[in-house]
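dumping this here before i forget
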Amino acid sequence: MTQLIQYASLMPAPWKNGGGSTTEIAVSPAGAGFDDFDWRASLATISQDGPFSIFPGIDRTLALVDGDGVLLDFGDERVVLSPSEPLIEFAGEDAVHATVTGANTTDFNVMTRRGRCRHRLEACVVRGTLELNRRASTTLVFLADGESLSVSSARERIAMVRYDMLVIESEQVWSLEAAQATVFVVDIVNN
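structure:
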């Protein structure tokens, strides 16, 4: 099964602490909440300094999509998520305080529940055509930057615009085509 999730059809939800908002793009199983999802993908806008929510038993990956970046303070370590270092992986139970280093930042967030599944996020630059060989039961294709992306298999062709995401659970070989695009490919592997 292949599902196109159009970002324009989604609604952001403000954070309880007022420091930003999150737009849930996809969750599995469908309709799951924070306590019972297997995996979740979202887009978050951080507009003010403050703590991250705690998610025990969850592995997280954040990838910078837009903005100058954010300083993440883990207590014993500080990491700057920036255009030069746009990706970080960490445990959901880690206490993290975010400090916005410029204007608002927008980050792609993938979370998987330990013991049920795991994930790997890879950023790919597409100029022309790039072949995608799926390596997991579920593959997410997120258009992080670029006006449009065409994704096709032997049986279907799907047009995407920025911040759209494709959930692929069939067909092993896909072709990604764009004049210039940055795409996040996420492999979700069931345990």
